[in-house]
Amino acid sequence: MDNRGFSLIELSIAMGAIAVLATAMLPAAIRSLEIKAGEKTVTEVAIIQEAARKFRNEQKSWPASLVQMQTLQYLAPQWSLLNPWNDPYQISSNANTFSVAAIVPDNLVSMLAFRLPQASVDGQKVTSVIGTAGTGTTIPTGVIVAWSGTIADIPSGWGLCDGTNGAPDLRDKFIVGARQDAQGVAKSNVTGALTQSGGTITHNHAGTTGSHTLTAAQIPPAQITLPMFSPNQASPNAPTIQRGQNPADGSLTLSTNGGGQGHTHTIPSDYHVPPYYA
Questions:
Q1: In the chain, which ranges are continuous DSSP H helix?
Q2: Is the sign of the CA dihedral 74, 77, 82, 84 positive or negative?
Q3: Which of 205, 197, 182 is nearest to 267 (CA)?
Q4: In sequence order, what are the residues at sequence separation of 6 or more whose Cβ sits closer than 8 angstroms to the Cβ of residue 185?
Q5: Which of these, 90, 119, 93, lies nearest to 102 by C-alpha position?
Q6: pLDDT per residue as tens digits for the range 145-183
Q7: Which helix (H) or strand (E) segment is 228 a member of?
Q8: Which helix (H) or strand (E) holds 92?
Q9: DSSP of 122-146, one letter per residue?
Q10: Residue 264 and residue 112: Cα distance in Å, rounded?
Q11: Which residue of 23, 66, 262, 277 sits 20 to 30 Å from the alpha carbon of 33, by its own alpha carbon?
């Protein structure tokens, strides 16, 4: 059994290989950390914006500072007011809009500008603007749109309609247009009565066809021939009739005057409404 250790040459080769691997892996690892920091920034900006919307709805004005938002508990007191690069988030507002700005590394500017609503870029500074419902070009809370991506990739500021956070539960449902408001709720008349949701996945048909009495014209024409025989003849193995006397045997033909015309039955109507939400 060979118990020798590594020689200096072998150790040098191994250390060189490790250094090459580390050099190759380091940029990818750094990039991964930067992307995570960028995603954290997007999330934090969205948190500030949603808190500012709530602040304005309740206080009738935009917040003057992040500290004020923390003091009034619109933001958690322990929440850091710095972005992942230790730069403070900057906020500003006017009558209808509220802005949040963050200074980020050059290689993340495009990412944040794409992910944040109404974003503008000034060097490393990315500013995102939101507004009050129905003003400017902002999309008001409550708008529902189709999303073709995965649930995990839903953009910041949007949420899945899964019945949480005040959103309706539209999972596995179709959206139908509401006809009118009823008791403060938008409702549809798709089933013949005002409802907000309903419908079923399964559906069974039931019913019978309507009765119909055939007329003479609708009865199919028919002809029946019965053989006849004399009293002194043996009855054949078939339906027959007997004549009174000879001289001749024969047959008797019965027929109808039906026209063989078509006829119809009525089938009651039915409907099937899949699960829906108005």
A1: 8-59, 66-71, 109-115
A2: negative
A3: 205
A4: 196
A5: 90
A6: 888 788 888 876 678 888 877 788 888 887 877 778 888
A7: strand 223-229
A8: strand 90-93
A9: ETTEEEEEEE-TTSTTPPPTT----
A10: 69
A11: 66
Task: Please name the residues in contact with 130: beta carbons below 8 A apart, sequence gap of 6 or more.
Answer: 49, 52, 53, 97, 98, 99, 117, 118, 138
The tokens describing 23, both together, are 């050099």
- Two tokens at 177? 């247009």
Number of Cβ within a 10 Å radius of residue 278: 20
How large is the greatest C-alpha to C-alpha distance in the chain, in angstroms?
A: 137
**Range in 1-5, 26-30, 184-188, 260-264 with the lowest mean pLDDT:** 1-5
Alpha-carbon distance 183 to 196, whole Å? 11
Find out whether 118 and 129 touch, Cβ atoms under 8 Å. Answer: yes
